[in-house]
Design brief:
Elements: E1 18-21, E2 26-29, E3 57-59, E4 65-67, H1 101-104, H2 116-119, H3 124-136, E5 138-140, E6 156-163, E7 183-191, E8 198-203, E9 208-211, E10 214-217, E11 223-226, E12 229-233, H4 245-256, E13 262-266, H5 268-277, E14 281-285, E15 289-291, E16 296-298, E17 301-305, H6 307-315, H7 325-343, H8 346-349, H9 352-365, E18 367-369, H10 375-385, E19 393-397, E20 400-402, E21 412-414, H11 418-427, H12 435-445, H13 448-453, E22 465-470, H14 477-488, E23 493-499, E24 508-511, H15 516-526, E25 533-535, E26 546-550, E27 572-574
Parallel strand pairs: 5-18, 6-13, 8-19, 22-23, 22-26, 24-25
Antiparallel strand pairs: 1-2, 3-4, 6-7, 7-8, 9-12, 10-11, 13-18, 14-17, 15-16, 19-27, 20-21, 24-26
């Protein structure tokens, strides 16, 4: 009889037979009360039986059977505590161990699911459970997605997509009845190369952007090319015209200039099942909610929600803020932060039942790319995330303005200066919580030689004339820089000259000797290093502009080229903060 079957006659949950030993930090199989370990509290275990296959048993000096620890796939074997005199293992201390960072680093930040097979050790059931969880995961192989995995010392980005497709039991009353599954909720999750912090950037579904041409693999193996689309809503980058998650990944790359390495897609069931698996998620609202559209009913203050109520909470638009999708995004971010805290809590970590339920729910809910399309690969992802403290996970939203092309705007477009700056934060692997420190460090590190080269008279912004060329490879870099120069710095005599003849490795400003005062003024505004200034030999005409070519070192409009990225003034909240929805 294996670990899954043992105890069924007494209606004992098999998962509860695996109990955390606070001395070793391992989950160990408690067979019966006669064993050398104490039984789990409030449980009456069945009669003694042979150890599960693979777990092994050995008779102690007194003839009492004890479960021996066996290696777990993907884990380092731990030292078994010395046995006390008489052959019995020393009883586990009843004292609750102090919560420490080392144990929390083992937690799966997103699902907790890869811990599942740890709980069943080397028992026969481990193999069956692992295969079951592995088989739960749906995999899509988007064309052009490398799926390179995770390399030490390199940042990576995962696109999390929540669709409005009405699949799953009880979801027929939600969403658009004919929706093929659009990108209803999208978060670009950036993980820093040193794994100390992460940024979760929400992208509004009603954002108007360019959806590039993409290819999808059809069920019969043929390749379908789907034309690109200009001035389209972001949410139709998935589902519409047969677009798959790879098309959404390309759209995000086109929009932000950030390479997207992997995607994770979930539907309505994910929210319901994951929240139920962890026993509910705590949320807070400033005033009572009774929303007839989403059927959300909550009292003022804190509530524990799960299942249908949790789904209603993240879907509602009529109860918070100005009833827009942007305010709904804030509520979703608050919900996700709370869910992360719940998954990392002792209440979840010390419950084998919750961890197993969470693993089952998470793997059923996920559709992922081939690069993370197995339980072992998801465990690898979890390992990369597990050391990040919740206080260093920053949630923010793409800065937007109302669409100027609409008389009564119902859609939005990226903010012309704040959005490029935020994209630059991601591309430069800069933490939103550490930007100010890095800015100060850069100022302190500026060399006197560079400062000396930039000394001299400076022209006023109104006198600066410059043509801006984009050689950076970042779409829209010239236009965003022009908007920033004109609107934020008053350089009205600036012109967007579109793409440079060829890509440039470095940003350069070419000027005539009689334009040196203008060059120094522009260099100050843009944070250009002295090496970017390229003086000519002949004076320029009175109305002749300087030439600014944005290179690969361009980080965003208003972002210093010679220093670290400057944090844009955007609203953000850390995952460890409890915020009440307004």
């Amino acid at each position: 009889m294996d670990a899954h079957s043992r105890g069924r006659a007494d209606e004992i949950d098999p998962a509860d037979q695996w109990v955390l030993n606070p001395q070793t930090g391992n989950y160990e199989l408690r067979l019966d009360r006669s064993a050398g370990q104490s039984a789990a509290p409030s449980r009456s275990h069945g009669p003694s039986a042979p150890a599960a296959a693979g777990a092994g048993s050995e008779a102690s000096g007194s003839g009492t059977a004890t479960a021996t620890e066996t290696p777990v796939p993907g884990q380092r074997r731990r030292r078994v505590p010395e046995q006390s005199r008489g052959g019995r293992q020393a009883p586990a201390s009843r004292r609750r161990p102090k919560q420490g960072a080392s144990r929390k680093k083992k937690v799966l930040l997103w699902t907790g699911g890869a811990m599942a097979f740890v709980l069943v050790g080397g028992a026969t059931g481990a193999y069956l459970l692992y295969n079951k969880l592995d088989g739960n995961i749906s995999v899509v192989d988007p064309i052009g997605v490398e799926g390179k995995g995770f390399r030490k010392g390199e940042a990576f980005n995962v696109l999390i997509i929540g669709t409005d497709k009405r699949t799953g039991a009880g979801n027929s009353g939600y969403g658009d009845a004919n929706s093929p599954g659009h990108a209803d909720t999208t978060i670009l999750f950036h993980v820093a190369k040193d794994r100390t912090n992460a940024t979760a950037l929400s992208i509004p579904r009603d954002l108007v952007t360019t959806i590039p041409e993409c290819q999808t693999r059809q069920p019969d193996g043929t390749i379908l090319t789907i034309p690109g689309q200009r001035k389209a809503r972001f949410n139709v980058s998935l589902g519409q015209d047969g677009r798959d998650p790879g098309c959404t990944m390309r759209t995000v790359k086109e929009l932000t200039g950030v390479d997207v390495d992997h995607f994770m897609m979930v539907d309505f069931n994910a929210v319901k099942e994951l929240t139920s698996a962890v026993g509910g998620v705590k949320v807070c609202v400033e005033k009572p909610v009774n929303d007839p559209k989403s059927h959300l009913k909550l009292p003022a203050g804190e509530s524990l929600i799960e299942g249908e109520q949790a789904l209603a909470f993240v879907r509602t638009r009529s109860s918070f803020g100005n009833k827009s999708d942007l305010d709904r995004i804030k509520v979703q971010q608050q919900f996700l932060g709370s869910m992360i805290r719940q998954m990392k809590s002792d209440e979840t970590l010390t419950s084998p039942t919750k961890l197993l339920n969470l693993a089952e729910a998470a793997t059923k809910a996920l559709t992922v790319d081939k690069g993370i399309g197995s339980l072992s690969k998801l465990q690898g992802l979890a390992g990369e995330l597990s050391g990040i403290d919740a206080k260093n996970i920053a949630f923010t939203t793409l800065p937007v303005i109302d669409n100027p092309d609409e008389p009564k705007p119902v859609t939005v477009v990226p903010h012309p200066t704040l959005a490029p700056q935020l994209f630059a934060v991601l591309r430069s692997d800069t933490s939103l919580t550490e930007v100010k420190k890095k800015e100060q460090d850069a100022k302190n590190a500026q060399t006197q030689a560079q400062a000396a080269l930039l000394q001299g008279a400076r022209a006023t912004a109104a006198d600066v004339r410059v043509d801006v060329y984009n050689g950076s490879g970042v779409q829209g870099a010239a236009q965003s820089t022009l908007s920033w120069l004109q609107n934020e710095r008053g350089v009205l005599r600036s012109t967007n000259k579109s793409n440079a003849p060829e890509k440039a490795a470095k940003t350069t400003l070419t000027y005539a000797p009689n334009q040196a005062d203008q060059a120094r003024a522009l260099a100050d505004m843009m944070g250009l290093p002295a090496t970017a200034l390229q003086p000519g030999t002949q004076d320029a005409g009175e109305r002749e502009p300087m030439t600014l070519v944005l290179g690969a070192d361009f980080k965003g409009a208003g972002v210093p080229v010679s220093g670290p990225v400057k944090a844009p003034d955007v609203e953000k909240v850390a995952a460890d903060q409890q915020v009440c929805a307004k």
